[in-house]
Write a structure and sequence with these properties.
This protein has helices at residues 3-78, 86-109, 124-129, 135-144, 148-161, 165-178, 182-194, 198-211, 216-232, 240-249, 254-265, 285-295, 302-317, and strands at residues 112-114, 120-122, 269-273, 276-280, 319-321, 326-327. The protein is of the alpha+beta class and 328 residues long. It has a four-stranded antiparallel beta sheet with strand order 3-4-5-6.
Length: 328
C-alpha cells in the first residue's frame, strides 16, 4: 500500500469522524449552555423568593412588635383603671397579645434555616416546639438569622400575657439557647414560677448576673416576680428568700420592701417566757416596712404599711399568761 495513500486515507477517516462528531459536540455545548441558563434563572428565582420571604418576615416581626407595645401599654393603664374600665381593657389587651402571637408565629413560619443535613426547612416553629436538636444547631440558626432570639423571646412574652405559660416557657427556653439574655431569663423565671416550678425559676434568676453582671435590677426583678407569684398564691413565707435577694440587689425598689415586710410578718410566732406567752416578731419585718416608707412616704401602700407597723408594735407589747389572759 502506498504510504501516502495510507496517510491520506487516515486523514479522510479522521475528517469523516469529525464531520459526524461535530453536530454532537455542538448539541452538547448547546445543552450545557441551556443548563447554565436554566441554573442562572433558577438562582434568580430563588434569590427573589428569599428576598420576598425576608420582607415578609420583617413585616410580621414589625406587626408583632406593634401589637406587643399596644398590649403592654394597656397593662400599664390597668394599674390605674377604675373597676368598670377593666373588662374592656383586659379584652383589648388579650386581643393585642393574640395578634402579636399570630404575627410572630408567621414570621417563624416564613423563616428559612438549614437542618443538620443542610436541607432547607420552612416552618421553623415546628422545629422549635420540638426542641432544638443541639447547641451547635442553635448556633447555626443564630448565624443564619439574628432576629430569631428576639422573635422567640417576644413570642414567649405574648404567650405569658395570655396566661399560656407552658407555651411561653418553650419559646423562652429556645430563645435563651440561641442567645442568653437577662430579660429573657427574667421572663422565663417568672413563667416557671407561674406553673409551680419554683426551684427551676430561682435557678434561672441566679443565671442572670452570669450573663450580664451589670443587670442587677433585672435580676432583682426576676426574684420579685417569683415572690409576687407565691404571694398571690397565698404562700407568703415562701416569698421571703426571693424578696431578700431582690431588695439586696435593688434597695430602691419600694414595693419589694413592702412585700418583704408582709412576708416576714406572716411568720409572727409565739413563745413561752417566764411563764408568759410572748409574740416573736421576725427580724427585719419592721425595717422592711420602714424602708418602704422612706422610699415612698406617700406611696400607694403607705397607709397599709403604717397600719402594719402599728400592729407589730401592739403585738410586741402584748403578752399572754399561760392561762390565756392577755395583758398589754
Amino acid at each position: 500500500m502506498d504510504p501516502f495513500f495510507a496517510k491520506a486515507g487516515g486523514l479522510a477517516l479522521l475528517l469523516a469522524l469529525l464531520s459526524v462528531l461535530a453536530p454532537r459536540g455542538a448539541a452538547q455545548i448547546g445543552r450545557v449552555a441551556a443548563d447554565q441558563a436554566t441554573s442562572t434563572e433558577a438562582e434568580k428565582v430563588k434569590h427573589e423568593e428569599t428576598k420576598n420571604r425576608t420582607k415578609l418576615v420583617k413585616t410580621h416581626f414589625a406587626n408583632g412588635n406593634q401589637a406587643m407595645q399596644d398590649a403592654q401599654a394597656i397593662r400599664q393603664q390597668l394599674q390605674r383603671a377604675a373597676n368598670h374600665q377593666e373588662p374592656a381593657l383586659l379584652a383589648k389587651m388579650k386581643a393585642d397579645y393574640q395578634t402579636a402571637i399570630t404575627e410572630y408565629e408567621q414570621a417563624l413560619e416564613d423563616t428559612r434555616v438549614n437542618d443538620e443535613d443542610r436541607v432547607q426547612v420552612i416552618g421553623l416553629l415546628r422545629i422549635i416546639r420540638n426542641g432544638l436538636v443541639s447547641q451547635e444547631k442553635a448556633v447555626e440558626m443564630l448565624v443564619q438569622n439574628k432576629d430569631l432570639p428576639v422573635i422567640l423571646s417576644n413570642l414567649g412574652i405574648a404567650y405569658g400575657g395570655l396566661g399560656e405559660y407552658q407555651e411561653a416557657i418553650t419559646m423562652l427556653q429556645q430563645a435563651a439557647i440561641l442567645k442568653p439574655a437577662a430579660p429573657t431569663y427574667m421572663e422565663l423565671g417568672t413563667d416557671l414560677a407561674q406553673v409551680g416550678r419554683m426551684q427551676e425559676a430561682t435557678a434561672i434568676c441566679d443565671k442572670i448576673l452570669t450573663v450580664d453582671p451589670t443587670a442587677k435590677n433585672v435580676s432583682a426583678g426576676c426574684y420579685k416576680n417569683i415572690a409576687i407569684v407565691v404571694v398571690n398564691a397565698g404562700k407568703l413565707a415562701e416569698a421571703i428568700v426571693p424578696l431578700q435577694k431582690a431588695t439586696e440587689l435593688n434597695p430602691q425598689d419600694a414595693l419589694a420592701w413592702k412585700l418583704l415586710g408582709d412576708a416576714l410578718s406572716s411568720t409572727v410566732s409565739t413563745k413561752s417566757e417566764d411563764g408568759k406567752i410572748v409574740y416573736v416578731i421576725p427580724t427585719g419585718s419592721i425595717e422592711a416596712y420602714q424602708r418602704y416608707l422612706q422610699l415612698e412616704p406617700r406611696g400607694t401602700y403607705a397607709g397599709q404599711v403604717q397600719a402594719a407597723l402599728e400592729e407589730i408594735a401592739r403585738l410586741a407589747k402584748r403578752v399572754s399568761t399561760t392561762e390565756g389572759k392577755e395583758k398589754n
